[in-house]
């Protein structure tokens, strides 16, 4: 529970855990966005950001391969949350697995930024688009989802991994000659204040986005009902139903964050529309399908009296970690079912075979990450950590 720090104002302090990073990095910017929104919703409370070095930050100069990249940068935060040193942690939703650690929930999903992917061109190619870049141009992305879709659309382009935080990636593009362009999520680019660097927005016929892309998620302890309640005003209904459908799709497909799975979701006043896609790594195979569900109030004809709303203890959430809210449960369950049904359709059309092949190819391409082996380079040079830490 949020600590009452017993000072004379009696103010309760909510502690927000964040990776120790420079202010100009995305993780801290996102934490500030959520802190500011919480402060606005709860002017009488105090919010304190507690930064900590994560394992990934501590070993930045050690040779590493593409290892279990997520926990590397979040493990310490998870422990701090569990041991109640912090009350909440802010994440990009697309980096959160569809199964959260025991006892953890997503207490709020904030309003989604533009979920699309965008192209940032090398300064020499500002006039170009992906379609007009010279044959053989190198596009930087470590996302198999982006590479698969774009290879299909632009077979003459070459896709190469680019790593590091967003500042590092941009520097590698602009100061080097390796990449002609980068593909990034619009949301991260906007939060960094780089909107004017965007050359092209990718529409769904070219590149569908990742599950949860563009939305921030606030994680807390499931049994911390006061914090769960505090987070409620940050939750954005349309975003929440959209991402519940997307995550249910992902979870049912059993695709991880490195699977070539993508979505395109539309929410109108009374309908949720979900397009899902699955690709082979080289883009030669593609499966897409769209389904929709009405977002309707529950039929209350048989139950005309409003039930008094009790703030019940939050139960284990069936919605891939997103806390269920009184009064919204019906919409959330419709969204969840849509995702599950779309996944079932894709699986019956062959998605399982495509994803299994992609997984095997991915594993085969992985450099050894056995920590018991000596570092792969013996020339004494420091190697860059190869993980997604943006
Ligand atoms: C995940 C992926 C990437 C991030 C894979 C994907 C991109 C990796 C890369 C799951 N996490 O999207 O298919 O391009 O090398 C990440 C970014 C953001 C959150 C940066 C980005 C910011 C946008 C957001 C990294 N995680 O995708 O450009 O909050 O949604």
Automatic annotation (TrEMBL):
Gene Ontology cellular-component terms for this entry are: cytoplasm
Q: According to the UniProt entry, what is the EC number of this protein?
A: 2.5.1.61
Q: Where is the composition biased (Low complexity)?
A: 362-379
A GO biological process of this protein is:
heme biosynthetic process
Pfam families from the xrefs?
Porphobil_deam, Porphobil_deamC
Could you tell me where the Basic and acidic residues compositional bias lies? 381-390
UniProt keyword list: Porphyrin biosynthesis, Transferase
Q: Which GO terms describe its molecular function?
A: hydroxymethylbilane synthase activity
Porphobilinogen deaminase N-terminal domain location? 14-227
Its top-level enzyme class, in one word, is transferase
Cofactor(s) needed: dipyrromethane
The Porphobilinogen deaminase C-terminal domain sits at: 242-296
Q: In which pathway does it act?
A: Porphyrin-containing compound metabolism; protoporphyrin-IX biosynthesis; coproporphyrinogen-III from 5-aminolevulinate: step 2/4
- Map out region (Disordered) in residue numbers: 360-390
Q: What does this protein do?
A: Tetrapolymerization of the monopyrrole PBG into the hydroxymethylbilane pre-uroporphyrinogen in several discrete steps.
Which family is this sequence assigned to?
Belongs to the HMBS family.
Q: What is this protein called?
A: hydroxymethylbilane synthase
List the source organism.
Scylla paramamosain
């Amino acid at each position: 529970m949020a600590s009452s720090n017993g000072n004379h104002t009696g103010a309760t302090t909510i502690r927000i855990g964040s990776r120790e990073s420079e202010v100009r990095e995305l993780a801290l910017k996102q934490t500030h966005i959520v802190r500011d929104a919480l402060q606005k919703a709860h002017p009488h409370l105090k919010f304190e950001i507690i930064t900590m070095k994560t394992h990934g930050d501590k070993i930045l100069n050690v040779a590493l391969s593409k290892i279990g990249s997520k926990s590397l940068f979040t493990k310490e935060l998870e422990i701090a949350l569990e041991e109640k040193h912090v009350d909440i942690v802010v994440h990009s939703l697309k980096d959160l697995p569809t199964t959260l650690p025991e006892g953890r929930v997503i207490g709020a999903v904030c309003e989604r930024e533009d979920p699309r992917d965008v192209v940032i061109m090398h300064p020499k190619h500002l006039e170009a688009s992906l379609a007009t870049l010279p044959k053989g141009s190198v596009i930087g992305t470590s996302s198999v989802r982006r590479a698969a879709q774009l290879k299909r659309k632009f077979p003459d382009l070459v896709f190469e991994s680019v790593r590091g935080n967003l500042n590092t990636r941009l520097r590698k593009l602009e100061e080097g000659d390796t990449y002609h362009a980068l593909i990034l999520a619009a949301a991260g680019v906007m939060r960094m204040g780089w909107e004017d660097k965007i050359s092209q927005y990718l529409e769904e016929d070219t590149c569908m986005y990742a599950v949860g892309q563009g939305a921030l998620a606030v994680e807390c302890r499931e049994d911390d009902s006061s914090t769960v309640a505090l987070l409620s005003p940050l939750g954005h209904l349309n975003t929440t139903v959209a991402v519940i459908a997307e995550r249910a799709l992902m979870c049912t497909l059993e695709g991880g964050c490195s699977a070539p799975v993508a979505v395109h979701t539309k929410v109108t006043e009374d309908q949720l529309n979900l397009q899902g896609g699955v690709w082979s790594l080289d883009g030669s195979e593609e499966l897409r399908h769209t389904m929709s569900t009405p977002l309707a109030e529950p039929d209350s004809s048989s139950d005309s009296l409003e039930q008094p709303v009790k703030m019940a203890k939050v139960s284990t959430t069936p919605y891939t970690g997103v806390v269920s809210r009184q009064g919204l449960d019906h919409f959330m369950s419709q969204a969840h079912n849509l995702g599950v049904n779309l996944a079932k359709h894709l699986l019956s059309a062959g998605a399982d075979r495509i994803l299994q092949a992609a997984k095997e190819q991915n594993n085969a391409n992985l450099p050894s990450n056995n920590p018991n082996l000596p570092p792969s380079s013996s020339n004494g040079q420091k190697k860059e950590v190869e993980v997604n830490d943006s």
